[in-house]
Structures are given as C-alpha cells and as structure tokens.
C-alpha cells in the first residue's frame, strides 16, 4: 500500500475512534406523574407535523471569562442528571413514550442520557458543519436521532441527551426532541428551564415564570391518526451547510434595498429587519438556482415561513406553552416583480398580520400546506427562524454560556433555519440537494453578504 493510502486509512481509523466510549442511563422524573395525567393526547395539529427530532447542540469550553464560574466542573454530569430529572417532573410528557402517533403514555420511563468521551479537542469539531455520524457533528448525538423518523428502534422515545467530553476538558450537550410534542420554541423553553434549574441548584421559586403550560385540550382531538394523510419523507438525499451573515453585511444589504426603494419612488423608510431581508435574500437565490437547474419542472416557487402564533391567538398564550404553535405563511412568486425585496417583505408582513386574533390552530395544519403545493407541482422552500430564541444568555447550566449553539441538520430538503451566532450575526443552516447546493454557494448575490 502506498504512503498516501496508509494516510487515508489512518484518517478513517481516527474518525471511527472519535467516540472512545459511551455509557447510557435513563433519567426519570424526580416525582412520579399523577395517575390522572398518565395519558397525554397529542392534538390533531401536532399529529400532522412531520415526524422527526429537533437536534440542537451547545458547546462549552473548559474555561470561560466569568471569574465566578471559571470552568466546567468535574461533577457536571451529576448536576445535569439531577436537574434534568427535576425538569421532567414539570415536562412529564417528555419522559413518556409515544403510542400510535396519537398520544403519549406518561409512564415515567425517562429520557435516555448518554455520556461519551470524544478522542479529540473541542476546537477540532465545533465548527464542522457535516452531520454524518462518522466524520461530523453527528457522532456527538445518540445514534439515529438527528434526521431519522421514529421507528421501532426508538420505541417512541421523545427526548435524547448526549453529554460529550473532549480531551481539552471542554464539553458539548447534544439534545434531540420529538417535533410531535412541540416546535423549536418548546424545545428551547424546556432547555431553558433545565439550564436555569441547574444554575440555581434546584431553586424552583426562580423558575415560576418558566413553568410549562400544557394546553393540548385547546386543539381539536378528533379523528384517528390513521385517517390523516401524511407525507412520506425519503431518506436523507440532501447535503447540509452553514452560512454566517455578519450584521455588518446585513447592514450593507439594508442600504442596497433602501436605495432600490428610492429609485422606485418609495420615500418612506420601510424599517426592514435583518431577518426579513435575509429571508428575502435566501429565497431570491434559491429561486434563481432552481430556475437554472430545474427549468420547466415546477409551476412556480413558494416561500413558506413558520410563524410563532402564541401571542397572536385570542386569548394569547404564554411563550412557555408546549406544542406546535406555528403556522406556515406562504408566498407564491411567479414573476421577477414578485421577487423584489420590498415586495417579498411586504407580503411577509401582510401574511403575518392576517394571523392576529385567530381563535385556534384548526385549519392551519402544516402537512395540509405541503400536500396542497405538492399536488400543484409548486417547488416550496421553508425558511424558518430561531433568531432571538434563548440559545446563549440563558443556556448557562452553571459553567457559563455556550460558545456555539446550532441546529445540526434540516428535517428535509429545501429547508433553511436561521439562528443567532454567539457574537454578531445570523447563521443559516441550509439543506439542499447536492448539485443545487453547489450552485447556491456560488451565487454572486449570496456571496456578497455571506461567510462560508
């Protein structure tokens, strides 16, 4: 074998040994779930959400800049387990098991908690965007909990945790939570409760404002899950990349769009947000790539945006309300005029405004939207945002804030999730078919504002 061949074999061997060891246990609620709460019916709206895990990971260096909490403690694992157990007493459905996709048996079987020793330094992996389990961030999660739909192997488990320890003393907490039980905000509020409880050593008085609200009775519970028409998602057939858009670049984009408005005779400042402009930029680039690579295949393109409607429902719900309280707005673009920044943002705002005062989630099921556009051969792109979600400042378990928090994959192709970076900008987690990803990453308008 040649020297180059030996080197390639060595690299593969090293990648396979990244996870040196794994141990597992089940974390049960600190107090048993009362008998009258043993069955948690999954509302119709939640049952029609695509069935996958939401995989988030948080990186913590050995040392941080906080003089009071200088380093990750040696007993971090025990602290995490204890506070998770107490958290599950409040979020009791997450310690149960999903049955037939329609309800949760709140049997207190617990959350699988895995501890892994990783054979490298944290700096070697924290900036990897690849989610493949053999050479990317995937090996920092329990096996088959990033993209996979539920199967007999998972036995209806709702939540998984993997605590990763690196040779440098740093640590990463990886969490996968079922989308059937809640949206990304539900995931973040659960994690926020857990972290705050750990930070304050179990002082529940400081967490009263963070207690979950379980209002599954608000949503329709009619008809059997087997009667619901569902989309069958294929095995992963796309690639995932991360792009970062510094705030300085987004400010430049705002200037460009404002100047375009002035040339079109628009005098009034539209007060564009960075989120609105970045969504419009990404959608414009996606459509441009699709027009070149799939001309004539689709009847048009649709921008779909997930909107948190907790505060829009009449009466409004608390932000800690558990469930999928998202509605997908949709904007159809068929002409060049439809794709102008001002037009896209105006329609985003109009669609959002129309949701104010809705009485329930009935009639706004996500899969209904997907199926409708699929039948009419529209190419739809989902761009959702986790910006301003509690990912950094409050994700302190007692040893400082994470230096990076990221969603490691998209649930399907043609999906982008926006997230705040730790410092100054927005990270976009992009899932596209491989050839289109190459075209997308080479798009001139995108490269003007993105850091690859």
**SS elements, strand count:** 17
Strand order of the largest sheet: 1-6-7-8-3-15
Tally of separate helices: 10
The gross shape turns out to be: globular
Distance between the termini: 36 Å
CATH superfamily grouping of the largest domain: Chloramphenicol acetyltransferase-like domain
Helical proportion? Answer: 25-40%
The average pLDDT is 84
CATH topology of the largest domain: Chloramphenicol Acetyltransferase
Q: What portion of residues belong to β-strands? A: 15-25%
Keywords: Acyltransferase, Transferase
Pfam families: Transferase (PF02458)
GO molecular function: acyltransferase activity
Family: Belongs to the plant acyltransferase family.
Task: Chart the SSEs and their pairings.
Elements: H1 3-16, E1 19-27, E2 39-41, H2 44-47, E3 53-60, H3 76-90, E4 97-99, E5 103-105, E6 111-118, E7 159-166, E8 171-178, H4 184-199, E9 213-214, E10 239-246, H5 247-263, H6 274-293, E11 300-308, E12 321-322, E13 326-333, H7 341-353, H8 366-375, E14 378-385, E15 404-407, E16 415-420, E17 425-432, H9 434-441, H10 444-447
Parallel strand pairs: 6-7, 9-12, 11-14, 14-16
Antiparallel strand pairs: 1-6, 2-5, 3-8, 3-15, 4-5, 7-8, 10-17, 11-13, 16-17
Helix pairs in contact: 3-4, 6-7
């Amino acid at each position: 074998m040649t020297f180059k061949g030996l080197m390639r074999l060595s690299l593969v061997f090293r990648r396979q040994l990244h996870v040196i060891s794994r141990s597992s246990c089940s974390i049960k609620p600190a107090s048993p779930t009362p008998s009258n709460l043993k069955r948690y019916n999954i509302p119709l709206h939640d049952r029609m959400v695509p069935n996958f895990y939401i995989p988030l990971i948080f990186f913590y260096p050995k040392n941080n800049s906080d003089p009071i909490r200088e380093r990750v403690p040696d007993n971090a694992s025990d602290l995490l387990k204890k506070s998770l157990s107490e958290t599950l007493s409040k979020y009791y459905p997450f310690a149960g098991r999903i049955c037939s996709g329609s309800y949760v048996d709140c049997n207190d079987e617990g959350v699988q908690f895995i501890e892994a020793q990783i054979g490298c330094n944290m700096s070697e992996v924290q900036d990897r965007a690849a989610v493949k389990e053999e050479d990317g961030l995937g090996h920092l999660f329990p096996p088959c909990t990033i993209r996979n739909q539920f199967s007999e192997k998972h036995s209806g488990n709702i939540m998984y945790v993997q605590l990763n320890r690196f040779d440098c003393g740093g640590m990463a907490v990886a969490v996968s939570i079922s989308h059937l039980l809640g949206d990304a905000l539900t995931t973040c509020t659960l994690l926020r409760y857990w972290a705050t409880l750990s930070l304050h050593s179990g002082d529940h008085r400081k967490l009263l404002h963070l207690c979950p609200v379980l209002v599954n009775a608000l949503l329709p519970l009619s008809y059997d899950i087997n009667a619901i028409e569902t989309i069958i998602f294929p095995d992963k057939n796309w690639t995932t990349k991360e792009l970062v858009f510094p705030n300085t670049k987004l400010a430049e984009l705002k200037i460009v769009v404002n100047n375009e408005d002035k040339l079109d005779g628009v005098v009034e400042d539209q007060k564009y947000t960075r989120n609105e402009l970045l969504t419009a930029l990404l959608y414009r680039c996606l459509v441009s790539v699709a027009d070149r690579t799939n001309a004539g295949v689709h009847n048009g393109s649709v921008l779909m945006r997930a909107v948190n409607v907790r505060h829009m429902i009449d009466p409004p719900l608390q932000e800690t309300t558990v469930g999928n309280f998202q509605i997908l707005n949709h904007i159809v673009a068929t002409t060049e005029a439809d794709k102008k920044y001002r037009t896209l943002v105006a329609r985003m705002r109009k669609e959002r405004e129309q949701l104010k005062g809705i009485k329930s989630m009935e009639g706004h099921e996500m899969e209904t939207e997907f199926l409708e556009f699929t039948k009419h051969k529209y190419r739809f792109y989902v761009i959702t945002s986790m910006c301003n979600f509690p990912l950094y400042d409050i994700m302190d378990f007692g040893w400082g804030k994470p230096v990076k928090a990221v969603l490691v994959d998209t649930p399907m192709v043609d999906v982008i999730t926006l997230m705040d970076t730790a410092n100054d900008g927005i990270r976009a987690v992009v899932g596209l078919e491989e050839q289109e990803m190459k075209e997308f990453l080479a798009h001139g308008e995108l490269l003007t504002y993105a850091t690859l």
